[in-house]
Task: inverse folding
């Protein structure tokens, strides 16, 4: 019972690490527009920082342009300012009733920099997964020391945790290869 709970808990945490990787990779521009790129931008609204998607509808006009239609007209300039000051490096255009956010083309050098950033994110995720493996193995050793499991159960469980780790790390590699292809495609 202890081993099953440990395995399940470790698996869930590893999946959470991969989910966080996907969220972080969504923030990295590929040259194509998608509304998820604006998810981390907050707008000052009546003294509170509010996510942009709660203040406006976000749509794609074409493959390189995002349209932002605020629910209230008076917040248009505040949204524009928040986007301009963000780390996205885009230049929003205020049309009076909506904001257009054109995504500039990426240069070859910028694409390479983004690939490096993607690899850093991947390595951080792999480290997180390996740390979870280490924690699980330490728990197994503690169970053995406390005589809650046998040596055979500990050895089998460590092998299972290692297989789980390998599966999740290969999943990270697949995600990274896909993202690199996406970034390098012109």
Result:
């Amino acid at each position: 019972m202890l081993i099953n709970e440990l395995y399940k808990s470790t698996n869930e945490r590893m999946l959470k690490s991969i989910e966080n990787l996907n969220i972080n990779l969504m923030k990295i521009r590929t040259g194509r527009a998608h509304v998820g790129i604006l998810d981390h931008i907050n707008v000052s609204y009546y003294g509170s920082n509010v996510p942009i998607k709660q203040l406006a509808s976000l749509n794609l006009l074409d493959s390189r342009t995002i349209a932002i239609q605020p629910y209230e007209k008076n917040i248009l300039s505040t949204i524009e300012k928040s986007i301009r000051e963000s780390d996205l490096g885009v230049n929003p255009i205020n049309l009076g009733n909506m904001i257009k956010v054109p995504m500039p083309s990426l240069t070859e050098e910028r694409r390479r920099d983004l690939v490096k950033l993607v690899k850093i994110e991947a390595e951080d995720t792999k480290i997180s997964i390996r740390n979870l493996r280490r924690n699980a193995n330490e728990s197994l050793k503690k169970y053995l020391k406390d005589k809650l499991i046998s040596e055979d159960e500990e050895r089998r469980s460590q092998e299972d945790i290692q297989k789980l780790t390998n599966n999740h790390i290969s999943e990270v590699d697949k995600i990274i290869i896909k993202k690199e292809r996406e970034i390098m495609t012109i």
User: Anything to note?
Assistant: Strands lie at 42-45, 48-51, 56-62, 65-70, 93-94, 99-102. The chain has two domains: 2-27+107-184, 35-102.
